[in-house]
Amino acid sequence: MGHDGGRKVLHVDMDAFFASVELLGREELRGRPVIVGGDPGFRSVVTSCTYEARKYGVHAGMSMTRALSLIPHAVVLSGSFARYRTYSHRVLEVLLSFTPRMHAVSIDEAFLDVSGIPGSMEDTGQRIQKAVLEATSLWCTVGCGPNRLLAKMASNLYKPRGVGTLTPEMMTELPASAIWGVGPGTASKLGNYGIDTIGKLRALSRSALRSIMGVYGEELYRYARGVDDRPVPFFGYREPPKSMGHEHTFTRDVEYPGEYMPALAMVCQRTGCRAREGGWKGGVVTLKYRLRNLKRITRRKILPWPTDQDQTILRAAGEMAAAHIKEPIRLIGVSISHLVPSETAQLSFFPEGTVALNSVADRVRERHGERAMVSGRALEYIQGKG
Amino acid sequence: MQELGEKIEMICHFSGGSVVPCRFRWQNRVYHVVRVSSSWESRRGTVKYFHYVVRTSDDDVYEIHFNTESMGWVIDCEYSHGA
Fold first, then answer.
1. d(Cα A250, Cα A264) in Å, to the nearest integer?
2. Contact indicator for A298, A285 with CB cutoff of 8 Å
3. Which residue in chain A is spatially nearest to B56 when comparing CA positions?
4. Which positions ≥6 away from B29 have C-beta within 8 Å?
5. DSSP state of A168
């Protein structure tokens, strides 16, 4: 089972990272339910919370209003991304001191291939845990396995402050939802067929899984058996993202273009900036919006050629918004997908006229901040007119 | 938490490539830093800031920052028990 060639892979996952960083130096808050998030009056969500808060059912992504209804006595902190970024860099420096085959997949998790390090995976994992703690005063959990899938699943199992291994043989009794990538929707779909454990999932043939889950069934067939050939690349390698985008939640529901276009312009500017910064162009623009009843709707438009230009993204998103938004909404967002590296994107006979403008704008914003140079529409957003 | 936002005078030492606050004067009183619990950097436009959470010998906890443009220190807030 598996084709891992005897690899040793670790998944390092910081425990309640944002909340833990906020608690540094705040000994009086230890042991209390602490939530990091925005003002509930602005429809914000929980960014992170301590394990004491998780005991009440609070988790990242939950609305602050709901979180505070579960724990009225919780301590709420607003948080500082600059603080988390600084600590994330410190953690990455520690991890890089162990191996250059380190891939940070988010601000608080990374995979390491430690196949070249003598000793067991768990020994190395414990040394890493200790080194991170000494450098940052923050705890992490280290999952160990013969590949990325099992290492990631292991860290979920052994959280918090754990170091442990998961092998294919140990997976059988675990719930199907423990497989990395199986979310509530997939778990529910499998549950409809009586498949609640990985053991039962393994009992299905490849064709049976494909008939239930479609193309994803092929991947699920391999993952249920602990098979994952994805390598851990060297530090600095960038995996192409599936998509990138931004959203805005309104403080009050809005319905008309004059009300939502400023915010849409701003999220398109942010998306374009991020695409250019990352060196990507997207061939599909997706508009997303959420109705008053919280129903989420998306609309897609395929572009004639990939773009990283705010104005092109806004034109596509604006047309879809005008055509489809006919009732009050509480959130609007845009994303681009089908990303290709900018330098390999197909050249057009009609190059976008905004390339030079956006290039200058990017340099101005890098020096003076995001709001230093904005379009007229986005200016209305900044001035609070939309 | 009590928001402050006042200028302070700082004595610090440079060690291991970083700035370590040692003691500061605020409202005519000297506070001795016994521990730097947290430190991070931020930027607003071209200006870089160095932030610290420090515990003083009185067992009080403050957040302070150094502004690299004005080259001045500010005491941002005091963390009281509870929040």
1. 11
2. no
3. A25
4. none
5. G
